Amino acid sequence: MNFEKHLKSQFLVAIAYIVIGVIALIALVILLISGKLNGKLSGIIGGLTFGFLPLGIGLLLDYYRVKRNPEKWKKEIELKNEERNIFLRNKSGYEAFGIMSFLMLGLWGVNIWVNISSSLVFPVLLGMMSISYFTILTINAKRY
Amino acid sequence: MRRIKIENKIKQLREQNGYTQQDLAEKVTVSRQTIISLESGRYNPSIILAYKIAKVFNLAIEDVFEFDKENYK
Lengths: 144, 73
Prior knowledge:
A: mainly alpha; 5 helices; B: mainly alpha; two-stranded antiparallel ribbon
């Protein structure tokens, strides 16, 4: 991968995220002061602020870290694209997908008798997806 | 599905040539963990990695990796 090109694109993405985050933060403050902030709006603007701003700052900090030590970055990229790691990620991904399919089927079954709120199901599924993926990844890393 | 195990002589050849696992890993641009997995037979390499490893020892792939024909029945 072209190092300069990667750095430039990472910098631009970081700045874009920060700009979106700052605009959302300003909007949030303005709405808060004017007293026009309602539940739905605060969720959307709050999500944009606290999603984009920390991510942008994180990317910018990573940009400076990579810029200071390009050799370390090249090593990291090599390891990330190493065939065993790709194999582990792919295998863990489809195994986690299988587990999630069973879980969703189970929830759908439960939903016939008990009404489950979608606002509860989605965060639980999202959490379970990450947990199952990283658990399987750890098991596969020991297995292979 | 049964996993096909490919026997290999990586550890033997590596020790004969005086390489550490880290040395071999750097020569074929993989992590030391991959070399450990290969030597223990837990992971089967791609044809490209197998070729790179064989090249390090100046051998052909089939001199380093042994395919058990029984597994292919």
